[in-house]
Amino acid sequence: MKTLKDINTRGPKSWNKEAYKAKNEVLFEEIAAMQRIMMAEQKQSLLIVLQGMDASGKDGTVRNIFSQANPNGCRVHSFKKPTDEEFAHDFLWRVHKVTPAKGMIQVFNRSHYEDILVPSVYGYIDKKVIKKRYEQINHFESLLEANGTKILKFYLHVSKDEQLERLKERVDNPLKYWKHNDGDWDTRERWDDFMDVYESIFKTCNTPRWHIVPADRNWVKVHYIAREIHKTMKKMNFKYPGLVSERFGSKA
Fold this sequence. Notes:
Layout: H1 17-41, E1 45-52, H2 58-65, E2 74-78, H3 84-87, H4 93-96, E3 105-109, H5 114-122, H6 127-146, E4 149-157, H7 160-172, H8 182-188, H9 191-204, E5 210-214, H10 218-236
Parallel strand pairs: 1-3, 1-4, 2-3, 4-5
């Protein structure tokens, strides 16, 4: 299996930007159309996990791909440092309560994998506990899929050089000041440590499998993810439900 160092962060050189941006718009429209049927059917759900280093483009991915989706059927949850209440429970407690109901799409901007990544890099949880968490996450995801939730996991693979340019932009461009966080620079200093933990996650928690997405060019990143979401939703084969009515008679 290739390591992250061996995987291109820009995507195919032959791709034409304008052509693929046009393809993306078609994918967005068709994803939205399938989402409407999914909401009506209310039998299946979709959980999309987005992981990546700071400035890898998680927010922009959501904004682009679900630009035409019905907000009533799509939710986004961002996982940050656990609150005191969350710390008082098992680490999956805060995750399980925001998984998608039937008929819904839920996007995790960061996820339960943060509870392996951060404590592993900074060493504030015993390694034996971390090892158990890998196993518990596998069981958790298996439980969700067994109950009708399809899981798609994406790692947004941005290069260290591209991340630096994006972090600098947050300091230099007044319109992006709001994105700046001093902690992102501290995390950058531990880049190699985070990469090592991600490699371990990809190896140990790969069912459902991880998709490693080139993220240096936003339109490429969006295409990879939208294409996979579209393909997955099509396979889920959503159907509008029949009419259930005492007045008019039920119709399949």
